[in-house]
Write a structure and sequence with these properties.
- By secondary structure, the chain is mainly α.
- Helix content is 68%, strand content 0%.
- The protein has two domains: 1-52; 55-115, no CATH class.
- The protein has five helices and no strands.
- The relative contact order is 0.13.
Length: 115
């Protein structure tokens, strides 16, 4: 693995640990959180998932997503609710800084919000 990739993984790990919701209790907890995050990111890189940029700046139109939803045979109420949820999510993500966006993406991908 190249030094550039390792530097990116370390930077991403630091950003994720800094944005954790739970407070760091000790130096051992900090190191454990860092190395756990690093291990996850390295595994994702080896699996080729590092190329996926969930929550990236590339946007998909709401009408396109609504078309995908409509193919799932949802009723009009469910489609409307899904459109509303997508619009609220887009507004939320638009307000985030780059670091916050990366942290939210990692939390969603790895389900880090679970206790």
């Amino acid at each position: 693995m190249s030094e550039t990739v390792l530097a990116e993984v370390v930077d991403d790990s630091i950003g994720i640990v800094v944005m954790m919701r739970r407070p760091i209790r000790s130096e051992a907890h900090l190191m454990g959180a860092f190395w756990t995050t690093t291990r996850i990111l390295l595994r994702q890189h080896r699996e080729g998932r590092h190329q996926l940029r969930v929550g990236s700046r590339s946007r998909v139109g709401l009408e396109t997503v609504a078309g995908w939803i409509a193919r799932d045979n949802l009723g009009p109420e469910e489609v409307l609710a899904a459109k509303d949820q997508l619009a609220r999510a887009a507004d939320f993500v638009a307000e985030l800084s780059d670091v916050e966006r990366d942290a939210v993406v990692m939390m969603a991908v790895e389900d880090l919000t679970a206790p």
